[in-house]
Amino acid sequence: MPPRTFALELSRTSSYVCQSCIASIGRARSNPQPWLTRNASSAARAARRQRAPTTTKQLEEEQAQRFQEALLREAQKEEPADTDQGPAEPLAVNYFNEETEGQYRQLRDGAEFGAVSGGIDSEISEAINDLEQKMVQTIQMLDSLEKVGGSEQDKAEELRKQFKKILREKYKGKTGPEGESYGVLRIPGFSGVRQRAVANLNSFLARDSVVKGGVPKPKDLFDCWKYYSAARSSLATQWSNVPREVWDFLWMVLSHQGEGVENPNRMHHIYVLAKDMQAAGVVLRDSQQLLAIEAMFLEGWQEEAIEAWKKAVVTIGSKPETFKGYYELGVRMCSLHGDTDRAMRAADTLLKSSESPNPRIMIPIVRALAAREENVEEAWEVYRDMRALLGDTMQIEDYDEVIACFLAVNHIEHALQAFVDMMFSGPMDIRGKTRLPTIVGNHFFLGKWLKRLIGAGDLDGAYKVVTFLQKKGVAASPIQLNGLVGAWLRTETADNIEKADQLAWAMIKARLDFVDLRRRAAAMDRPIRLVPRDGEPTPDDYVCTTRATVETFSLLAENYSARGLHDELEELWTAFELAELGPNSFMINQIIKSYTESKGPQEAIDFYEQMTKKRHVRPDAHTFIALYNTLSVNRVVRRDSKLTADDAVIGRQFFQDLVKMDWKFDSVDEYTYLPRTVLFSMLKAKDHAGMIVAARTMKELFSYSPPEQLLIELAAGTATLRVQSKRNMDRIMEASRLIESLIRKHTQVFADLGGDPAKMTTQEKDNQLCAVFEELVLVKAHAQNAERSAVNNILAQAAEEMGVFDIVFTRDPAVIRRYRKVMKNKDVEDDVD
C-alpha cells in the first residue's frame, strides 16, 4: 500500500484529526439525496471559505486559478473584478506522511510535503509558484497604474506592450488549418502523481511541433488521442477545468482529414469527444454539431442521429454557412438508413437552392434505391437526372460509382448500360436486347470493362460481367480470365482463392473438352458437336467456354507450390499433359520444387531428367536454381559428411547441364540470383575447386564478376547481410576486413605494374574482383600457400568433370560463342554490362 500524505492545520479551537480518519468517515457516511440538498447563499459560502482549513494543495490550486484569471483579463483587457475578501491570513501548518500502517513522520516544511505528495521537485515547484506570483503581481500593478491616469497610464500602456511582446515570443501559440489561432493551451487544477495522465496531455498541448504550419501530422493525430483518452477519466471529475480553447484545439486535431494524412478512427474519436464536451456543458458550434451527428450515425446510433438532424433544421439548416452541409449530410444518412423518400426531399431542397449544389449527392440515393428489386427503375431514373444535371462535367469516377451500385445488387444490364454511356457519347440503349450490338458485343469491349473493374478491385463485379455477357454470346478471352484469376490469388484471402481455383478449373475443363472433341473429330469423317447429357448444367447456369492456356496452369501451379499443396499440383500436372499444350519451364520448375518437398530430391532430379533430356523441354535459370536447392546442403540444418560429398559431385553435374543446355537469361534478377546460388551451394559442399572453375566459366559465358557484397557474404559464410544477429554481424565485420585487405593487396600490385588505381577501367575492376574471389577461395580451402602448379592441376581436373575445360583453360572462342548465355532483353543485357 503506497504511503499516504496529509496536512494538519493547527488552530486555537480545533483539535487534531488526521486525513485518513476523515477519509474513512467520509466513506462510511452515505451521500445525501440530490433533491434534499440546497444551494447555499453567497454569504454562507464566503463564511465557510473563511473558516475552512486551507491545505497547500488548495493554496496552489487557488493561486493557479488566480493566475489563469489574470492572464484571461490581460488577454481581454478587462478590469480585475473587485473582491470583498482581503488577503488570506497565513496559517501555521504541520505536515505528516504515513510511512507504514499506523506510523507517521512529520515533514520539515511545505516543500517536502509537495515533493512527497505531488512528485515534483521542491525547487521546481517553488520556482513555478514564484513565477506565477510575479506575473500576477505585474498584471495587478499595470491595472493600478492605468487607474491613476495621466503619465502613469502612458507608462502602464508601454509596459503592457512589452509584457505582451514577451508573452507572444514565449508562447507563439498554434494555428489550425482554417486559420484558427490558439494561445497557451493548458488544463489547470490537476496535480499530483495520480494526475500524471493530465500532465502528459498538457505536455502534448505545449509542444511546439503540434500542428506546425497549420496542418496536423499523423503523429499529432496519434499522440492527441493517446494522451486525451488516457486523461479522460481524470478530466471527467472536473470537466469545468478544461478551457474552451482546449476543447476547440482537440476537436481541430482529432477531426482533421486532409490530403496525405490518414485518420482512420476519425469518426469514433469525434463521437467520444462530442460526448465529453456535452458532459462538460460546452456548446458545440454548428459545424461541430454536423460532424458530431455524422459520427453518431456511423457509430451505430442511426435513428438517434437522424432525429437530431431533423431537430436541427431550424438552427443549422437555415444558416447559409451550414445549409449545404446540413442537407448533404441528411441525404447520405437517410439513404444509408433506407429512408429514400426523405433523402430525395432533402436532395430536392438542396438542388433547388442557390447554394451551388453538387448533383453528385444523388449517388447515395441511386445506391439505396438499387438495393431494392422493386426500385431499380427508379434508381435508374435518378441516375439519368444526375447525368443530365452534370452534363459535360460528369467524370469517369462518377460512372464507376453508378456502375458499382448496380453490380453490387446483380443488376448487370443496368451496369452495362451505364458503362456504354461512359464509353460512347451518342445515345445507345442496349437494355432488354437479346443480342448486343456488334460495337458492344465483342471481347475487346468486354476486356476494357474487365480491366477497369479489376484495376478498381471490384473482382466479384468483374466475374458477374463475365457470366452475364457470355449468356449474351460474348465470351471472354483467356488472357482476360487469367487476369481475373491472378487478381483473386493475389488477395490471398480464402474466399477469393477458392473462386480463382473454381474459375481456373472451369477453364481447364473447357480446354479438356476441346481436346477431347478435337480427338473425336480427327477419328471421324464428318463434323460432330457436343450435346448436353443428363445431369449437366442447364443453359441458365454458367458454364465457362473460355479455354485454359499455359498461363492458367502456371497461375495455379505457383499458388499450389507456395501453399504446399503437392497432391493438387500433381493433379494439375496430369491435367496439363492431357490438355496437350506442351510442357514449359515454369510448370517444370514448380513440379521440381514440389517433388523436392514431398517425394524427395531424387524424384525431382528424375523428373527434370525426363522433361529436359527425353521430352526436350528447354529449361531456364529458375530450373537450375530449383535443382541446386535439391542439394542437402541447401535443405538440411545438420550436415552429413557423406551427403555433402555427394552434393559436390551432383553440383558439378548440374553446372555441366547449366552450360551445355540451350537457354537464355530473361531478367536481371535471374542474372543476380543464379550465380549466387551456384557459388554458395559449392561453398557449403566444400567444393572449392568447383567454385573457381564455375566463376571463371560464368565470367566467359555470362560476363559475370562477383560483386564486393557477394565476396563479403562468401567470406562470412552467410547468404545475406540482412540477418542482424550478433554472430552474423561479428562474422560480417571480420569478413569485411579480410576482403578489404585482399583488395588493397591487389590494388598495390596493380600500382606496382604501372597502373593508376584511381583510373581503373570497368574491365580492370572486374578482373581485380575475380582475382580477389579466387584468393578468397584459396583462403577458405587453406591452400593460399600451395604451389601454383598443384592448384592448376586440381582446377583442370574439376573443369574436365564439369565439362568446361575448353572454356576455362583452352578458351576456345567457338565453344564460348556457342554456349554464351545472352539475355533475351537487350536493354537488360546492356544494364548488366
UniProtKB/TrEMBL annotation:
Database matches in InterPro entries: TPR-like_helical_dom_sf (IPR011990)
Sequence segments annotated as region (Disordered): 30-63
Protein name: Pentatricopeptide repeat protein
Native source organism of the sequence: Neurospora intermedia
